[in-house]
Design brief:
It is a single chain. The chain is an all-beta fold. It has no helices and ten strands. The strands form two sheets. The chain has a six-stranded mixed β-sheet, with no helix packed on it. Strands 1-3-8-7 form a four-stranded antiparallel β-sheet, with no helix packed on it. The chain starts with a strand and ends with a strand.
């Protein structure tokens, strides 16, 4: 059974950092592009970052370039998103998935506020 479980979110002040984790199960991670998405209140879900199976190609949305870093541990079945220099506009529920996507997990809430 394919399952995605995100964790690591929380409340952080502007300029702070968080590291999100996504535990994936039910498939072999090394075969897939893995990605992070986010959905802010009242907005559509958007892609934040993705990483190919060989870890040689990455994508970052312009809004997070230079601040976020995606990584993966295929052996542990986890994909990470290190988020630094957080801004209030980063506030959203963050989700992980693969390409092609499977059913979404619950997500993890990130709130950036002073």
């Amino acid at each position: 059974q394919v399952q995605l479980v995100e964790s690591g979110g929380g409340l952080v002040q502007p300029g702070g950092s968080l590291r999100l984790s996504c535990k994936m199960s039910g498939f072999t991670l090394e075969h897939y592009v893995l990605a992070w998405f986010r959905q802010a209140p009242g907005k559509e879900r958007e892609g934040v970052s993705c990483l190919d199976s060989s870890e040689t190609a990455t994508y970052y949305a312009d809004s997070v370039k230079g601040r976020f870093t995606i990584s993966r541990d295929n052996d542990k079945h986890i994909v990470y998103l290190q988020m630094n220099a957080l801004k209030p506009e980063d506030t959203a529920v963050y989700y992980c998935n693969r390409q092609p996507p499977v059913d979404w997990g619950q997500g993890t809430q990130v709130t950036v506020s002073s």
